[in-house]
Write a structure and sequence with these properties.
Helix content: 25-40%
Radius of gyration: 19 Å
Distance between the termini: 43 Å
Strand content: 15-25%
Order of helices and strands: EEEEHEEHHHEEEEEHEHHHH
Length: about 325
């Protein structure tokens, strides 16, 4: 494997396995992957818009002729920064979990395109939206859904290379999948891992996320490509697991003391995790945990949650 510097573009992990990284890994700057065997290719995720996905595919073609035609595309979960570029490989077999496919249609790119147009008139929320998503172009994207879905586990073969898809959601989203290549001791973790950035739990429960981390820690694996951030190993998995244990404990203590989800999120001392990017995501994470705990005041919608994150960044 090449030296693991965190730079934009293609990084070779092992024989015919590549990661495509997008620093700094913050909002929308996701990673993808390419697995090839002879002239057969499997892509893990596309990117947030068409321009970024075209650039990625060009880079992949420069390193391997197998990328001239993508045979299979795996979507790890239903956030647009991992699938809005699908139309550029629409002739591939597109695979996701059943839950992911159902969730993908809920936030088509046209919704973000309309918000982007109105953001300058939306005050604090609009400023935060532009801060996160201004670099991306959501215009002219055609939603391209999976052509095949599965539940729990799916074993694929790329000629002689085994690829195992494992559904670990709901946790980050409702249908999260990790991609395991056992012979190459490699995992593409999707957004089960954010390295250097704060993970965000839209769905939960947190126990599923911790269980997914434990699963990866039990695997014979050396190289792990997160959904955001630099290539990592089991130490990266351990740090995300520890984050969730810490936040769950802190949120539960405040819930038992009668604090609201918003009060708790603002009150929690992030300690060593304060240096991670996107720390405002604590608002979403605590709201999701409070929903697990049984709170009646934690049913905040996405707009309300983004408004609260915007307020936290402003204060």
């Amino acid at each position: 494997m090449e030296k693991q510097n965190y730079s934009k573009g293609i990084h070779k992990i092992g024989k015919d396995i590549y990661a495509y990284l997008q620093p700094d890994g913050g909002w929308g700057w996701s990673n993808a992957g390419l697995i090839v065997d002879n002239d057969v290719s499997l892509l893990v995720d596309t990117l947030f818009d068409l321009d970024l996905t075209r650039e990625m595919l060009r880079e992949m073609r420069r390193v391997t002729k197998a990328a001239d035609r993508i045979d299979t595309l795996i979507i790890t979960h239903a956030n647009g920064d991992h699938f809005y570029g699908n139309e550029l490989v629409k002739n591939a077999e597109i695979i996701s979990s059943k839950a992911c496919a159902e969730e993908m249609v809920e936030t088509p790119p046209q919704v973000l395109a309309e918000i982007a147009k109105e953001a300058s008139n939306m005050g604090e929320l609009g400023e935060f939206f532009l801060r996160c998503f201004k670099p991306f172009n959501f215009e002219g994207i055609t939603m391209t859904p999976p052509t095949r879905t599965f539940e729990r586990r799916l074993n694929l073969s790329i000629i002689d290379k085994e690829v195992i898809l494992i559904e670990v959601g709901p946790c980050h989203t409702r249908g999260d999948v990790i991609v395991y290549i056992p012979d190459d001791k490699t995992i593409f973790a999707g957004d089960i891992l954010f390295i250097g950035g704060t993970p965000i739990m839209w769905s939960g429960p947190v126990a599923n996320w911790i269980r997914a981390c434990d699963m990866m820690l039990d695997m014979d694996v050396e190289f792990i490509v997160p959904g955001h951030g630099p290539i990592t190993n089991k130490r990266g998995v351990e740090s995300v697991r520890e984050y969730w244990e810490y936040v769950e404990t802190e949120a539960r203590m405040r819930y038992d003391n009668g604090m609201s989800a918003v009060e708790a999120a603002m009150d929690i001392d992030l300690g060593k995790y304060a240096s991670w990017g996107e720390k405002e995501r604590i608002v979403v994470n605590v709201a999701t945990l409070y929903r697990e705990f049984g709170s009646d005041d934690s049913s905040l919608n996405v707009v309300e949650l983004f408004s609260l994150m915007a307020k936290m960044m402003k204060d």
